[in-house]
Amino acid sequence: MSGLGSALPGGRPGMGFGGGGQDTQGMSEQEVAAMKAMQAGMESCWVKTIMSGVAGAGMGALFGLFMSSMRYDTPLSASGTEITKLPLAQQLRSGFREMGRASLSSGKNFGIIGAVFAGTECAIEGLRAKNDLYNGVAAGCITGGALAMKAGPQATLVGCAGFAAFSAAIDAYMKMPEDEVKKPVM
């Protein structure tokens, strides 16, 4: 038994489990079953959505933390008093509180964006039964439009176009042949 690659859809002989290069030789039936269950879980739209939301929230929290540390362009605190005239402990408390708020806010926003995009893309891919550039473009349009919907129809259209274009650019880059990624034509 050289692997399950030839037995799974899209797998090629000699590629191991699911075409991922993992060899199942020497594995017990229970280990192979567990590997199949993990792969099935990773292909589930719900799991992809949750994982993207959690990863987006984590990256957003880090981004918010970093951006809040760059935000002190004025010596005034939120209450209007000068930060430099406060005791050090109060300055630190105020700074950490602001960093926490920014981190939480960015984390929630990035988490929502990641979850909506991944869930929408997975659902579209399942409905179309194709894995191509159009899935990401459509998911980007739906995500951008949904996020901008409260601001009106013009903002919805701009959000749709912006997210779709960004998704198309990222997908096109990620699916580029290896030699073009290393040496892009400019």
TrEMBL record:
<protein>
    <recommendedName>
        <fullName>Mitochondrial import inner membrane translocase subunit TIM22</fullName>
    </recommendedName>
</protein>
<keyword id="KW-0999">Mitochondrion inner membrane</keyword>
<comment type="function">
    <text>Essential core component of the TIM22 complex, a complex that mediates the import and insertion of multi-pass transmembrane proteins into the mitochondrial inner membrane. In the TIM22 complex, it constitutes the voltage-activated and signal-gated channel. Forms a twin-pore translocase that uses the membrane potential as external driving force in 2 voltage-dependent steps.</text>
</comment>
<feature type="region of interest" description="Disordered">
    <location>
        <begin position="1"/>
        <end position="26"/>
    </location>
</feature>
<dbReference type="Pfam" id="PF02466">
    <property type="entry name" value="Tim17"/>
</dbReference>
<keyword id="KW-0472">Membrane</keyword>
<keyword id="KW-0496">Mitochondrion</keyword>
<comment type="similarity">
    <text>Belongs to the Tim17/Tim22/Tim23 family.</text>
</comment>
<keyword id="KW-0653">Protein transport</keyword>
<keyword id="KW-1133">Transmembrane helix</keyword>
<keyword id="KW-0811">Translocation</keyword>
<comment type="subunit">
    <text>Component of the TIM22 complex.</text>
</comment>
<keyword id="KW-0813">Transport</keyword>
<keyword id="KW-0812">Transmembrane</keyword>
<feature type="compositionally biased region" description="Gly residues">
    <location>
        <begin position="11"/>
        <end position="23"/>
    </location>
</feature>
<dbReference type="InterPro" id="IPR039175">
    <property type="entry name" value="TIM22"/>
</dbReference>
